[in-house]
Amino acid sequence: MLTRAYQHSLNGSHLPSGRPLLEVDHISLFFGGVTALKDVAFTVTEGHVHAVIGPNGAGKSSLLNCISGLYHPQEGQIRLHTADAPHEDGTHGKVHTHALTSLPPHRIARLGVARSFQNIELFSHLTVLDNLMLGRHIHMRHSVLTSMLWFGPARRQEIAHRQLVEEVIDLLQLQAFRNKPVGSLAYGIQKRVELGRALCLQPALLLLDEPMAGMNAEEKEDMARYVLDVHELAGVSVVLIEHDMNVVMDISDRVSVLDFGKLIADGTPDEVKADPAVIEAYLGAEEEDDEVKEALRRQTRHVEEEHRG
Amino acid sequence: MAATATGIHHRSYSSELSLRATKAEYFRLGLMVVVLLVVPFVLDNYWLSIANTILIAVIGAVGLNILVGYTGQISLGQGGFLAVGAYTSVIISDRMGLPVPVAIALAVLMTAAVGTFFGLPGLRLKGLYLAIATLASQQIIEFVIRRWGWLTEDQGFIDVERLEVAGFRVERTLFEQQWYWILLAFAVLTVLTARNLFRTGLGRSFMAVRDQDIAAEAIGVNLARAKLTAFAVSSGFVGLAGALTAHYTEIVTWERFTLDVSILYLAMIIVGGLGSIAGAVYGAIFMTLLPVLIREAATSIRDVAPFLASQLPAVQNAVFGLTIIVFLIVEPRGLDRIWQRIKDYVRFWPFRY
Q1: Given CB atoms, is A148 within the 8 Å cutoff of chain B?
Q2: Do the Cβ atoms of B219 and A158 come within 8 Å?
Q3: ipTM exceeds 0.95, yes or no
């Protein structure tokens, strides 16, 4: 599967697989009189792809913004667990718990939470390479004097970090666009660059806000493949917001469903699909959306058959 | 689409990171060096004084472009920061008796500190609102240098001593030549260090703040620190320009540091190209030469159009305004972009694209 040996681990987390990585502990977020999130609680497990779904306006992006520190929920707490590097004898490093709700976004990024945005937020005047190198920001030292001197530490640092960036370029097949300004690239490529920039942080947790929005079926498949690569090859835990039910059911280990700011279901894809509250909320009343519901039932059957077979 | 040089195959990251790769680029660099070395021997004192003014403007414009063009923080406080550099350096060297290089270094640090302080509104304000806040800094500094008698020992101006460093004293007969070499060294150093800054992570983080501040925060850029660092670095260069102006012109008065100067420098980087070191250099050359050339032109056609010469200041102002408008409409990315397009045209020739 690997075409070349990757020298760097893109996963920044040292937590043992299966341990809780992120705990969203009963958070509520209000904008004036509007309730964006009400008493939302779930846990993201290390090594999982965790999908967050829900109808438009359900509060999915608000939730992601709370985790990455752009919004601060008025109630509740979000905790991130990180671990020190494993000891030489193979035992796991010490586990630390961080309260994210009191931290500014750049400190949360420093803890290893990287994200992409629903509407692409790249540095549009810079090249793909510069955008990805910016993903290395938290791992670099920035001194005015050495930067101005260039020769010496600054140059060495650029070259060292370029090596990891090239691995991300390989993984996401961005070779052809390396020196192009991102503003000039197609939408699908820009989405991929944004994924790459987040990956360059060597994140412990990757938050993806609708990475496949506005794509055709083929582009969606490609993107799903890249997300899976990131998860399987690089081992990064992912929180994914996505509208496409097929994609969500196919690639996630666990699904949380939001509706009007409330968590109405949380479980494996199969559990969630069978949940009457989800069908009610997500697909509407029975008489309105028979077709969609039927499609969901077909898919459930399909998955069940697959499991049996 | 810009033309890319073909046949250049980098075999290491370090070779790709070097600023020049093609023979043509090295040739152009060599040509530039030769021109810069020959200038003091072919120009007379009048034109050399203009060259020296340009060199100081280059330092100031590069400094301003770091803040405005690269970090996206609009500043109208340039004149004030130049003043901080000029007054600090002269007071330290002439009145306290420290060597001039030490005085200039301290002036750079002082201006960086003052610039950082006046950059604090930038943590909360963006765009036009920040422009107004920096306008306030311009007014405050201007007020202080006009009214604070201690600065000028109640004379209203400071008469600066002839430059003297470790026994070397600038000679009266070779004044412009010797200053040319000094200013050239500082200008080259400024351009090189600024260019280096923007091929490292620190400079990239400035550009990230300019392009998309929320995303910059999300990848771990501390916005407050990045903005204040940009203010400090930019003001440091501006302070250097101010200190050099003081020692070169040998007089410091508040009239040299008004809002007009701030706007002139903004015009330089807009005409030259926002977010480009080369652009700042081109802009500084262009905007310094423009009024001089208009004066030359007006005197040479005095017989045909006498009103041009008699109304010279008005004509200069009108052309100044017109130039900015034309650039904003025709090529908002300035002289730097025009130069790129010329190079592309040559590279693609005989094809159009």
Answers
A1: yes
A2: no
A3: no
